[in-house]
Amino acid sequence: MTDQLTVDLGELRLAYRVHGAAGAPPLLLLHALGERGADWDGVLPQLAPHHRVYALDLRGHGGSDRPARYGLELMRDDVVAFLDALGLARVDLVGHSMGGVVAYLLAQSHPERVGRLVLEGRWTSTGRRSGRSRHRSTPRSRPGGSVWRTSPHRPWWWPAERRATSRRTGSPNWPAGSRTAGW
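RESULT FIELD:
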């Protein structure tokens, strides 16, 4: 069962969903721009047997407050305040698209708070002047854990057939009837 909760961070109230056993290792999921924590519901049953899964609605999304100011660094700071409020010293972190940028910023500024980092659908620079990016499906080592990067528009939880279709057509191939069908 997924519980829907809120946490008051002073000037901002954030909504989140939690799934899994209370004693399991914490896993925090950060959604893409215009999405919400509930968008992770499709993968919660696969993740919850091994983790206490938190799916956060970032500021201005889902059930969270819509403040006057926005920014990726503000969202990063919100996530740190969220972790503090829930007493989560260290989490495994998954970020999709914009959530991947927020996750990356958090891991960069507070590496001691992140056990493992998964950046899904977020372009990362190789440092080349051309600005080209690369995607890997294998971990890159970093102190205290691993960083997993996956290809854009092909989330790691999609079945292999769906990822292959996405590669051929260049579109995410959303299921019929979904909010994003016809994108």
